[in-house]
User: Fold these one by one.
Assistant:
Number 1:
Amino acid sequence: MPETLARAKQFGPEVNLETALRAGDLLGGHYVQGHVDGTGRIRAVEPEGDSRRVTIEAPPEILRYCVEKGSIAVDGVSLTIAGLTDEEFEVALVRHTLEATTLGSVEPGEDVNLEVDVLAKYVERLAAR
């Protein structure tokens, strides 16, 4: 889709896919739709025990929807924002995420696709009226 390609980094040979939530299923995570709102760049990857803390630079149009302990999808993986500044956010990747997704191999300087929390976008739109 041209609209997605205009907003996204180039997709590699592997992508992260999650099955859709079915009506009646328990909601045990974040609202992720599979869209790409923009891109960010990995600034740092720091080990934390058997986990890693990843710092991602993001443009203001993405960061405006970010809150600490809120959600964001990075390359299609729904994560919790562990830290936030005016220029970047941090996520903590647990061992399962490192092993089961493409995020286990990210390095500083790499671009990543970002999807912000859709609920934040709805709140912004409704509050502007």
Note: The two ends are 31 Å apart (CA to CA).
Number 2:
Amino acid sequence: MPKGKSDQNTGILEYALRHLEQEREDIQAKIDHILRQLGARVSSVVTSAAAPAAAAPAATAPGRKKRVLSAAARKRIALAQKKRWAEHRKAKGKAAA
């Protein structure tokens, strides 16, 4: 490959890289703005694509306390679910017959 063409490709790639980094900064600023409106903590630098996904559950966590069910409530919920499943199986059995 001629030397001039390699330099031209390098220049184009460097330009594209600068442009994409600027777009990433603009998008991150918009994300941070929305997160601030939602009351979440904002990280100024996102180092990987997985970081925004990992930050999403944390965005709702600070405002909520863990809900604890009593043993009686868990039992009522379990019995109600078993009743729904029994009705579902019964209806499924009638449809097959």
Note: Helices lie at 3-38, 50-60, 71-96.
Number 3:
Amino acid sequence: MLEGEGRLMSKILVVDDDRNIVEMLQFLLKKEGYMVCIARDGKAGLEMAHKEQPDLIILDVMMPEMDGFSVSGVLFKDPVMRRIPILVLTAKGNAREIFDLVPNVGIYMEKPFESEILLNNVRKLLTPQTKPA
């Protein structure tokens, strides 16, 4: 998280090859005060994740170079990167069961999505989890 305008700004990496989805997410997230980084395929997403160290990754499943399954698996194997929560956002409706088995995937959403539900899920994943004493 970065300090900005008196509050902490979360950095979100969007990894998706659909230009319209990327533009919509970028608009929604920036409007809410988040910093947004973009990668257009899975391989670039991994590189950007290592470079930018985002607080959250919004990840598509079907992409060129490397799909979302592979990206989430590589991230989970890295002890530094596995702490980053992932929100899977995809048109591939039958993939939920596979991602339910991936510990770093916090939320799975299908396209098309409702903006307010997506933003609520982003907030939920960015809120530190408190552990009972």
Note: Residues 3-7 have pLDDT under 50 and may be disordered.
Number 4:
Amino acid sequence: MSAVLKDTPELGAMREADLDEVLTIESAIYTHPWTLGNFADSVRAGYDCCTWRLYGELVGYFILMAAAGEAHLLNLSVAARHQRQGHGTTLLRHAAAIARERGAHNMFLEVRPSNRAAQELYARFGFRKIAVRRDYYPAQSGREDALVFSLVL
């Protein structure tokens, strides 16, 4: 029996078996990527950890934590060769739908000021900058702030 590859992207639950592929993307697109432990802990904690596959290839993923009427998008990433093709927007749409299902009224996220492409994606989706967390991220030299964005669901 042979596997049939789907020609439309599919959202699926991230499993520990996916983590090597996830880390390959994470390490390729970030100077300070999440670790295997970060992802494994999120999966084990029962967060909404989702993969996005096209023709069986991992294209992107997100980690969403929802509780007490709000959701926090902890990580949303798209492989470099698949960026700027609408996958980020589609992943955001799925994350927002899951957040609503979990009873969230707002979704929050942090993004680096240096990540202009992500900021533009979030703004197009309807997120608004609401705060700055000083020295939040590790950087090549010292620390970098985080811009906090919020979306009313």
Note: The mean pLDDT is 95.
